[in-house]
Design brief:
This protein is an alpha+beta fold and 324 residues long. The protein is 24% helix and 25% strand. β10 and β11 form a beta hairpin.
Length: 324
Amino acid sequence: MAVGYRDYYKTLGVARDATQEEIQKAYRKLARKLHPDVNKDPKAEDQFKEINEANEVLKDPEKRQRYDQLGANWQSGQEFRPPPGWENRFHFGSGFGQGEPFGEGGFSDFFETLFGAGGLRQGRGPAGAQAWHHENFHQDGENHEAILSIPLEEAFHGGSKTLTMQAPTVTAQGQVVPRTRTIEVKIPAGILPGQKIRLAGQGGAGAGGGRRGDLYLKVEIPPHPVYQLHGRDLQMELKVAPWEAALGTEIEMETLAGRVTLKIPPGTASDRRLRLRGRGMPSPRGSGGDLYAVVKIMVPKRLSQQEKELFEQLREVSSYNPRK
């Protein structure tokens, strides 16, 4: 029997080399748009059936591979006859091609010609035949992702933050309108750039009673005027006077973890990294990072008369040559 060929890729609006993720994303987008609970256009239900049929084949790598063996040269609506012996070439596993026919609202003749009138058993979920009876359709909402930019101090100490967000919402009449909502976000102490905070149920709305998706906040930390972040370690510049570096001293300094006293050993050279263990970014598991103070020896731009005389005396008595 000749039937009209169905281009499932065209039905979902994806390329033939689309990834499984791209196929599912396209299907979910169309399902939300064409679902009879949302779209009151009389044609929407037929289109809804078509995308479910396309998804039923393309979502499964085995079925998709066998569908692709028909070739890419067919055009939608073109008269199609399966190759001789097609029905005997492939085995689709237990239940496939053996279930009861779905009757009105079931698979197309094209689908049944390829895979058998039974196609699938009843009750296989939203992508199966029962999904076409919209009172039983359940579609979970999509997960969303947004950027959360927080200062280093907030990432270090953690805490709560109130966010105001706008998200598109589909009304009962099928209109998409912006909705403003306020979300309380708990920021764990020591969170790093690129890590995500999951807010369950704050993503896209589901359809047919499906659960809402989740919202993932990807953390960004802008550059800090004092500290640089390297993994969980922090680094800062520590300015010292020439005599402090030469003779050694102790310097009191503020850090994100509180006030500390740092010992400068005698003979400390510029760019030497002095480590403060455990004063870096905290970790929810195990020990945190360290803080490194990078020494920068600073020379006064203007010298008093006495300072100038002392430096001249030092030049006369010192045998130190930094270029050797």
